[in-house]
Design a protein that fits this description.
The chain is α+β, with helices and mostly antiparallel strands and 746 residues long. It contains eleven helices and 39 strands. Strands 1, 15, 17, 18, 20, 23 and 25 form a seven-stranded mixed sheet that branches. Strands 7-8-6-10-11-12-13 form a seven-stranded parallel sheet, with helices on both faces. It has a five-stranded antiparallel sheet with strand order 3-4-2-5-9. The longest helix has 18 residues. It starts with 5 loop residues before the first strand and ends with a helix. The C terminus is likely disordered.
Length: 746
């Protein structure tokens, strides 16, 4: 019986809306592959042993971490291979190849849309905000706007490196490999041919163009050119964005490609690496690659509304010291909810800081025009030519979906050599031409092979994709793409699916659907859009890291991370949600930040005094000071419930950071009045900016009256502590007994 082939669900941190093609979860890892690390000094021997004994072949070695990507024989499942490796004492670890799924005022014309940099409270994308709920970028730019020598790698869906925001000749913000020439050779001997502006690990070529828009949006927030009189600005006006493509046009990628991307970034000078991608699968090899790097990794926390402390999201949840994990906030400085579903992940210990991540306006690639397509829903393939040995190419309907297949309603047969090729289409005027389609099936791999070929005359065919370029397991239709730029300029182009089988073992065959050939439109100034997610929050942090390193390139990744955390602005809404309880603040890093350590303080009425702490953070030098006073509005009475706080000025010496403490004395009386509040406020900062400027002190009542008790049931209404009568509350013995009962009943 033929299987019904479904599309895999594609998830990205770019837009919270997943492209759901079926109610079936996307696969966690790629079939037929593993990432393996042998113990030192025996890697070569073990590689040879596994090849001869189990027919497991090494595909790629990751020298920096000592691991390798291996290909399993068709007869061996991932689970079977893991059992073999995990029982080998010479193996340090083996794991699946997991999928990851796609976190001074300039004169730029659309700057008002960038509420995350300066929030005036006015509506952005139809939503109003709170004045000052931003990262205070404009004040930071008075000190630092960036440096084109700071290399920031965007490991993502690629980057539209030709976007006008990155290509102005006077300040080009795309990394250029000055040691490489376009001559068909590896000029700089780094292992990559003609890699003058990054690398595409999806297509394995030197063109990391973005066919999704996620990576371009991220790159624009980091370092769109500032103060150039057009469009937007990034947090860092000048930087060198290194485009590294590891996610395909659907926003899906493999950890093996991410590891390759990390090693490429490391080897080519990146000091900051933005990873706005995630899944729930832990990868030791991916963590090893991060640990082996000296760069700062800025990672999106995730968009599922999950607590990463208990439900980790990787790579953000790795314990690597050089990772800064980022949650998202909205225009009112609250933890972000995304529309139409989802919200920012959080974690009191596993997520470090928050940054703006809702209604974020940034760069996108130009639109794409479809040149030719076929979804087969009309049931007609007269525009296709089929032929060859054992040719049974045709259409098959599964539910309401019609798909092209080599063997409709039956398994294919042995010794097949058949094909189906399209009608011709023109790429004469195409730009960044791309072929995309969905493909899946069940065959004997690698002996029964599907090949995608391209021709400009219908007679001579060039193999472009084959074998392991297609996924042939389970019931999933996998998104597949092919860069057609080598065929641009040709008025006649054909594509052909050519299937070969040997003389043993047959299967269900191949299914192909939703074929699209498209071309990128010309830039017209409209290449900007809103998006949301922790993918959009992370690049705000990466941009701030770029500003910090522009000011002092000698800082280490850990020092930059610490500076970002220490200068972040404490927010009530983030208390217990991120480790710092704070959203980043660019200005406070450069000018210093003075703020209450918490928005709330408590003291018992009999506690004598409340310790109110104020902190100085940031990396500024010079003496700073701030005034602290109680203000009207609290329910506590000055002079009765607490001693009036005299005018208090807190001072820090030149370069000094840390905490200053103010003791607010409270009055212990025997009158039952309930809890009371005192409002405090910071003002008049000198030499630094204000962060959290308001706090509330709660004076907790410790006296009781008869009304607090339920005499009939002999227990305290509030605590449940049993007593014999209200009068006994004055008895020290009874009070002790009550306290003891409370303690041992918890």
């Amino acid at each position: 019986m033929k299987k019904s082939y479904l599309y895999a669900m594609i998830v990205s941190l770019f837009a919270i809306v997943p492209v759901v093609l079926a109610a079936t979860p996307a696969p966690t890892y790629k079939a037929g592959e593993l990432l393996v690390k042998y113990k030192p000094a025996i890697s070569s021997y073990k590689t040879s042993q596994y090849s001869s004994t189990h027919k497991i072949q090494s595909i790629k070695a990751f020298k920096r971490i000592g691991a390798q990507l291996v290909k399993l024989p068709d007869s061996m499942s991932v689970e079977q291979a893991l059992e073999i490796y995990n029982n080998d004492p010479d193996v340090e670890y083996a794991e699946p190849n997991y999928y990851r799924y796609a976190t001074a005022t300039p004169n730029d014309t659309d700057f008002s849309e960038l509420w995350g940099l300066e929030n005036t409270g006015l509506p952005v994308n139809g939503t109003a905000g709170t004045v000052g709920a931003d990262i205070d970028a404009t004040t930071a730019w008075d000190t630092e706007t960036g440096d084109g020598s700071i290399v920031i790698a965007v490991i993502d869906t690629g980057v539209a490196y030709d976007h006008p925001e990155f290509t102005e000749p006077a300040s080009e913000n795309i990394w250029a490999n000055g040691d490489e020439a376009i001559d068909g050779t590896d000029t700089d001997s780094n292992g990559y041919i003609d890699d003058t502006r990054g690398w595409d690990f999806v297509s394995d070529d030197n063109d990391p163009m973005d066919y999704n828009s996620h990576g371009t949006h991220v790159a624009g927030t980091i370092a769109a050119q500032g103060n150039n009189g057009a469009g937007i600005t990034g947090v860092c006006w000048d930087a060198a964005i290194m485009p590294i493509r590891v996610l395909d046009a659907s926003g899906t990628g493999l950890t093996s490609d991410i590891i390759s991307g990390i090693e490429y970034a490391d080897n080519n000078g990146a000091v900051i690496i933005n990873l706005s991608l995630a899944s729930t699968a832990f990868s030791q090899s991916e963590k090893d690659a991060i640990d082996a790097s000296s760069a700062l990794f800025v990672c999106a926390a995730g968009n599922e509304g999950a607590n990463n402390d208990s439900t980790p999201s990787y790579p953000a949840s790795y314990t690597s010291a050089n990772i800064i994990s980022v949650a998202a906030t909205d225009q009112d400085d609250a933890l972000a909810d995304f529309s139409p579903g989802g919200s920012s992940n959080y974690g009191a210990t596993s997520v470090d800081v928050a940054a703006p991540g809702v209604n974020i306006y940034s760069t996108i690639p130009p639109g794409r025009t479809t040149i030719w397509s076929d979804d087969f829903q009309d049931g007609d393939i007269t525009n296709w030519t089929t032929g060859g040995t054992n040719n049974t190419w045709g259409l098959e309907t599964n539910a309401t979906v019609v798909q092209l297949t080599d063997s409709p309603d039956a398994s294919y047969v042995n010794d097949t050599d058949s094909w189906a090729y399209s009608e011709d289409f023109s790429l004469a005027g195409a730009n960044d031409a791309l072929l995309t389609f969905y493909c899946g099936g069940s065959v004997q791999d690698p002996d029964d092979i599907l090949t995608l070929q391209v021709s400009t005359d219908g007679a001579a065919w060039t193999d472009e994709l084959s074998g392991t370029d297609f996924t042939a397991d389970g019931i999933y239709m996998y998104y597949t793409e092919l860069d057609l730029t080598p065929y641009e300029g040709n008025a006649t182009v054909y594509i052909r699916f050519h299937f070969f089988s040997d003389n043993s073992v047959i299967g269900d065959g191949w299914y192909i659907d939703d074929i699209i050939v498209s071309s990128a439109d010309a830039y017209d100034g409209s290449e900007y859009d809103y998006s949301e997610g922790t993918s959009m929050a992370a690049p705000h942090v990466a941009g701030l890291a770029g500003l910090i390193l522009s000011a002092d390139p000698t800082l280490t990744a850990i020092e930059v991370k610490t500076g970002i955390e220490n200068s972040a602005e404490v927010l009530t809404a983030l208390s217990g949600r991120v480790a710092t309880g704070a959203r980043i603040n660019a200005a406070s890093y450069f000018t210093g930040i003075l703020q209450f350590s918490s928005s709330t303080y408590q003291v018992s009425e009999g506690g004598g005094a409340a310790a109110i702490t104020v902190t100085r953070g940031g990396s500024s030098t010079g003496a700073v000071s701030v005034d602290c006073a109680t203000i009207a509005g609290g329910t506590a009475v000055e002079g009765t419930d607490y001693t009036a706080l005299p005018a208090t000025n807190l001072n820090w010496a030149d370069g000094e950071t840390g905490i200053r403490t103010i003791n607010v004395s409270v009055t212990n009386n025997t009158v039952t009045q309930g809890d009371k509040t005192v409002f405090l406020q910071l003002s008049n900062p000198m030499g630094a900016v204000l962060g959290l400027a308001d706090a509330t002190l709660t004076i907790q009542e410790d006296d009781y009256s008869a009304s607090d008790y339920d005499d009939e049931n002999r227990k305290s209404v509030s605590s449940g502590c049993f007593i014999e009568s209200a009068a006994e509350t004055t008895s020290i013995k009874k009070a002790y007994k009550c306290i003891k009962e409370l303690l041992f009943s918890r």
